[in-house]
Automatic annotation (TrEMBL):
Pfam families: Amino_oxidase. One of its GO terms (biological process) is carotenoid metabolic process. One of its GO terms (molecular function) is oxidoreductase activity. InterPro entries: Amino_oxidase, CrtISO-like, FAD/NAD-bd_sf. Transmembrane segments: none annotated. This is C-3',4' desaturase CrtD. Residues 12-482 form the Amine oxidase domain. SUPFAM superfamilies: FAD/NAD(P)-binding domain. It comes from the Bacteria.
Length: 486
């Protein structure tokens, strides 16, 4: 019998696995796919490596989450390169260069928005201050929302004056803060909407101020290019996990989780494993398909309610091309029409491999991942599927070619929510966590500890939310909590 079974090898799951193995727990980690990492995974075609979803590295700065995690696990950080330019944001009439260094970014603000630059700088300074207050608390890995008196006591212990100073902003939106500073510039608001949709899945009107503050400050703490893609980080953690004695089984999909005296986890290979704890690393809306009915009846999270909570899907284009890029920026965001929603190809992110990265592409060539937010439910009409796919791809590539006239495309593949459902086993291909629906959405966050003893959650649909850093943090919170169980 195992102490802990971990289902899934996304950042949350592999973090939990490695930390528990280091603590001496007997662990088994099960991955349904051929590749590690889920939405942070990779695949290869014709000498090109493609990043399935997430592309930009964060948390490798001194004191950052991944720096802390690798130190905790006695590991060396994989090769990463700090980005002077985070990304170029392309509008029809101009391009804004988003710099990592705060002072250089403020110079760009003065150049791009001379009329409102003072107010915009004050807005960002407020965001940085709020983020400092919140992250100093979150990095202590509290169990939020607290489930027990013990959790409440721990939260009180970990809170400090910085956090208390942020409480007046708890129920405000980013839009409210912009209104406070009198900022109405259409292009700047579109810029913010593009950044927020990519990081926290929503725009200024519905984004809680505290959540938005973290999203708008995180690149200025550290933005990195990771050689070989973010999957390199996952693979390094998995290798360390196995060195520490953990068991990892690939292509073994969990089809049932039930509880008798202990937890019983059954896979598609007709194997049943027993454990004291089960950690599910996946979206909450995906767990109901494998939970036994007796567990679902006592589970505080209700399946029908979760089905109705809005979440995005991803439409992706993967390309292997000749290195024709006349720019030093590796990341490019396109916003086509500032007045339209930041989805369905109106806003998309293009990530290119570095010209020196031989893991990603042969010499003289680049690997590209393009992604846009899409309604995941619109992709399940089989008769209209190919037409929708081709129309959206054509629309996106038209705008790409206007900026980067790529002359020789060696590989071109398209992914939709159907693709993500197939390869990452996420219900309806929903990715990126839930969409916040206003300042009060923070109150509906799921905690990593469930009401069912021994069942834990990590990943983008529980606190602290979406993104590689948040998912790793959720896994760390779970590892801490399991270690505290007597």
């Amino acid at each position: 019998m195992y102490d802990v079974i971990i289902v899934g090898t996304g950042f949350g799951g592999i973090t939990t696995s490695a930390l528990l193995a280091k603590k001496g727990y007997r662990t088994l980690t099960l991955e349904a796919a051929n590749e590690l990492g889920g939405c942070a995974g990779k695949f290869e075609r014709q000498s090109f490596r493609f990043q399935a979803g997430a592309t930009l590295g964060m948390g490798f700065e001194e004191g950052g989450i991944f720096s802390q995690l690798f130190h905790e696990l006695d590991m060396s950080v994989p090769p990463v390169h700090s980005l002077h330019t985070v990304m170029d944001v392309h509008f029809s009439e101009r391009t804004i260069r988003y710099y990592q260094q705060k002072e250089r970014w403020f110079e760009e603000i003065a150049l791009q928005f001379p009329k409102d630059s003072g107010a915009i700088v004050r807005f960002f300074e407020e965001m940085f201050s709020l983020a400092d207050a919140l992250l100093s608390f979150i990095y202590k890995r509290p169990m939020i929302p607290p489930k027990t008196m013990k959790h409440i006591f721990e939260v009180i212990q970990k809170a400090d004056r910085k956090l208390l100073s942020a409480t007046p902003f708890l129920f405000q939106s980013i839009a409210k803060r912009l209104q406070h500073y009198g900022i109405r510039d259409e292009t700047f608001i579109a810029f913010l909407n593009g950044q927020l949709v990519d990081s926290v899945q929503t725009t200024i009107e519905h984004c809680p101020a505290l959540l938005g503050a973290v999203a708008l400050s995180i690149f200025h703490r550290g933005a990195f290019y990771v050689e070989g893609g973010l999957a390199t980080v996952v693979h390094a953690l998995a290798q360390r996990y196995k060195q520490l004695g953990g068991e990892l089984r690939m292509r073994e999909k969990v089809i049932s989780i039930r509880k008798e005296r202990h937890w019983l986890v059954t896979t598609n290979r007709k194997q049943t494993y027993e454990a004291k704890h089960v950690v599910f690393n996946g979206s909450v809306h995906s767990i109901f398909a494998i939970l036994d009915d007796s567990i679902k009846r006592s589970f505080s999270i209700r399946e029908e309610k979760e089905k109705k909570r809005p979440a995005w899907g991803a439409f992706t284009i993967y390309m292997g091309v000749d290195d024709d890029f006349q720019t030093d920026s590796l990341y490019h965001q396109f916003i086509i029409d500032k007045t339209k929603p930041m989805s369905e190809g109106n806003q998309f992110l293009l990530s290119t491999s570095a010209p020196f990265d031989r893991q990603m592409a042969p010499l003289g060539k680049r690997s590209i991942t393009i992604s846009t937010h899409t309604d995941p439910l619109r992709w399940w009409d089989r008769d209209a599927y190919d037409k929708k796919k081709n129309v959206l791809a054509k629309h996106i590539l038209k705008h790409v070619h206007e900026t980067f006239p790529l002359t020789n495309i060696h590989v071109q593949l398209i992914g939709t929510p159907v693709t993500f459902a197939r390869f990452t086993h996420r219900a309806f291909g929903k990715v990126g966590g839930y969409i916040p629906n206003g300042p009060f959405s923070l109150l509906s966050t799921h905690t990593p500890q469930t009401n069912v003893e021994g069942l834990w959650l990590c990943g983008d649909t529980v606190f602290p939310g979406a993104g590689s850093l948040s998912c790793a943090l959720s896994g760390w919170i779970v590892a801490d909590a399991i270690a505290m169980v007597k």
